[in-house]
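Exercise (ungraded).
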Amino acid sequence: MTGIRSPGILGFVAPVLQIDDLCRRFGERIALDHLSFEVSAGQVVGFLGPNGAGKTTTMRAIFDLTDLDSGTITWSGTAVGQAQRRRFGYMPEERGLYPSMLVGEQLQYLGKLHGLSARDASNAMNTWLERLGLADRVNSKVESLSHGNQQRVQLAAALLHGPELLILDEPLAGLDPAGIDVIGEVLAEQARAGCCVLFSSHQLDQVEDLCESVVIIDHGHLVVAGKVDDLATSGPRRLVVRIEGQRSASWLDGVAGVEISEVRGGDARLVLDPTVDSNAILELARSTGRVTKFVFERRRLSELFREAVA
Amino acid sequence: MKFIVPALVLIVLAARLWRRHRGAARTPRAKSDRLRGDVALVMAREVRERFRGRVFKVTTLFVLIVVAAAIIIPVLRGGKTKVQTIGIVGSSTPSLQATVRSSAATVGLTVRLVPEPSVNAAKVELGSGRIYAAIVYTRAVLMESSLSPTDVSSSAQFVRSLAENLGIAKAFQAAKLSTAQYETITHARALPITSVEPGAGKSGGRSPTQATSVIGTVLIFVMLSQYNTWILMGVMEEKSSRVIEVLLSAVRPIQLLTGKVLGIGVVALAQASLIVAFALALSKAVGSSLLHGSAPLVVVSTLVWLVLGYAFYCWVYAAAGSMIERQDQVQSLVLPLSLPMIFGYIMALTGASSGSPSMLLKVLAFLPPTAPFTMPVLVGFGVVTWWAFLISAAISVLCTVGVARLAATVYRRAILRTGSRVRLREVFH
């Protein structure tokens, strides 16, 4: 099983969400195909994949919102049941709140359903509405809020009871940059506080900024999982070279083990075989002209994603 | 004094042991408490939201106005009873006065009796219209003009009834009956019929008890239609707004469904109780005959069948609500679902109007979908024994258990299927 685990500190083992061999078929379409991965608490994990890859089905399966043909889901070694789910927070892809219910009452109701006392639910509601900039909307009906604010209320509903595991399906969709920043901060805070945060998104640049780790699935099965830094620096070296006056990469003609992936604005992006000596490339560049840029580049998450699901 | 310290120590030890024992047994109980707590939370939200809603307030007010009208209007009409003046030539004995007044009462008239010194004087009074009829020495009834056989006015019916009763009284006298025998015969009463509602009205005419049962049937139909619609729309709203996913991430489908059904049930019972209490108080205040005699039994039976009817139908409508998520899908589902209710309602009203319960009505009173409407009408007729009533209720409860299980399965499988309307065969596929 591929996993993303945080190292234990002084014998403390962080809770782990373990997805093991999930299969789900809708008629002829296979949504989950022996999907397995695990993520541990204390980190923000991006759950990526193209449309129809099985992300939402996996998230719904964690909350028993879809039947599984086979497979198991455990939290810290225990099969996920009603008692565990009550300690999880969930923000579904299609936002769902009672439209005509007051924001404050709705949050308190959802908090109590997750096991909070009336007083704790009220305190948590006030805290989160304040934190998300909605303190003045406590007595507003949900339907009277803007899309972005409804999204914030939905996030508050998922966070109210201090969940151990936070599952967010496309939490950044439709948000302005300020909204994305707020949610990013909140997710990072939650992870620092020991929560396991798993969220899906198609906004890969934001995911790269927010996440320590990613899980990429396609056609219902795992493609890649690991820490973003490790994945970005893994694989062949990527080199960007700029030579004054050179608009092409013809100076590399005939050099073995070097693939020219892109030439744009004078920057030549090269992919080097492990056998290629980068100093030899530097010497060749200097003999061609004045070298103004010579940088090894990380792979962007978007490149990683495209490679993974290609 | 020396026993106090050891006794206190013993009490403290016993208390600690008891608390420890409670703590050990708490785990499973805590779980079941939690489940019940979730149902109570869902129920409380439903009650709060429904009581707060404008629909509840408007409907309650509307029904109260209709009930008030149904009670007050007959009383007001009864208060305007026509008074007829009857002249009496000869001695006006108490028995004669009683016969005249009872004849008038049967057709809803009030009479004023005036003595006439002679037949001629009575004729003059008849001619002037000051008296409507005159009784001449208890041998004849004199009128200004002869009664037409087609005249069915209350005055005409009164004169016919008076003539008949005076004839009977004369026959009793001719038979030389003693006063005691005469009293015995004139005070003869029909034998009581043993039933759930003893002493109900005779067939052939609508007694106040039957009128009460008709009002009860109408109320059951109106209220069940309203509560069923609440259930259907409430479930559909949770599905269409997608809040269902958030809710089901914390509670089980059966808890959510039970909480909703109980919550709306509490509102229904509260509304029905308010209406009945209002009707009872108003009837007493204005002296209505609608709740006299055995009519309170009909009221109780109406309340019982409102609860049983709600219990039966609420699950069906909840399951139906879980299969749809748009307003335009509601109509296509509501009509077939409401057909049994409409059928039972029409049969109940038709049966009540016909004056005698048909065999079909009696059969329908034992079928759970139609019993809430037809059984109160049978109770109004006084033709239901207590054990038949209980058997019908037991059949309804048993069927409700089966329907609830089926509905819970449909709800659990359909509530998370979005998109087009879910078909039953997809649910059980």
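Further reading is listed at the end of the chapter. For now, observe: Chain A touches chain B through 27 residues (CB under 8 Å). DSSP finds ten helices and 15 strands in chain A.
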